[in-house]
Amino acid sequence: MRLDDRQWAGLFLFVGIAQFAVIGLTVSEAVYSEASPTGYSISQNYISDLGVGPAALVFNPSIILVGVLVLATAWFLWRAVGDRILSIVVALAGAGAIAVGVFTEAFGVVHELVSLWTFIFIGLSAILAARIVRPPFRYISVILGVLSLVALGLYIAKAYLGLGPGGMERMIVWPILVWGTAFGGYLFGSSSPASASPAAP
Fold it and tell me: CB 10: neighbour CB atoms within 10 A?
């Protein structure tokens, strides 16, 4: 089986997002809860707490890996569709994810800045992806991106809506995880026009 650039972009994005959702979040939370006397609260603990606590050896490689795979996605997206703006924004999101895994909470304000950088560009990635996908996914993509950015605004304003800081932070991240998985599948399941097989006579 030979994959074209669009399918490689989808494969890298799907694998990156899926492994982070399963390993970076779910497994890391379980490891942290098991190892810490106080456990791990989805409502009160920040996601980045996983990068400096008992689960650091699981969480940090996972978020760095998703960043690397998102960078690869950006490269293949550029080759497949030639959308410079979308490709740059996706690449910036990937670079931000790598930085979050390198500059953990122990780096203080640097970590806060790279986290903000990542949150902004992942939300914008979902919105800008509407430029290259068809309805109804076009509308879903925009809605998920907007939801993520609205949650970011609420998070910055400390308006947690009863979810706690950790819960609101997840409202930033989960719409993008859903979008990234769906977008990866969308790209992987489609072919670039030049590489599509000719219709049977």
Answer: 23
- Residue 78: Cβ within 10 Å count: 18
Residue for token pair 């970590």: 111
Q: Count of alpha carbons within 13 Å of 141, Cβ hemisphere only?
A: 23
pLDDT digits over 160-192, tens only? 999 999 999 999 999 999 999 999 999 998 766
Q: What is the model's pTM?
A: 0.91
Rounded CA separation 141/123 (Å): 10
| Omega of the bond leading into 37 within 30 degrees of 0 (cis) | no
Write down the H helix ranges in 82-128: 84-102, 109-128
Cβ-count burial 126-157 (b if 16+ within 10 Å, e if not): bbbbbebbeeebeebbbebbebbbebbebbee
The alpha-helical segments, DSSP class H, found in the chain are 5-19, 28-35, 56-81, 84-102, 109-128, 137-156, 164-188
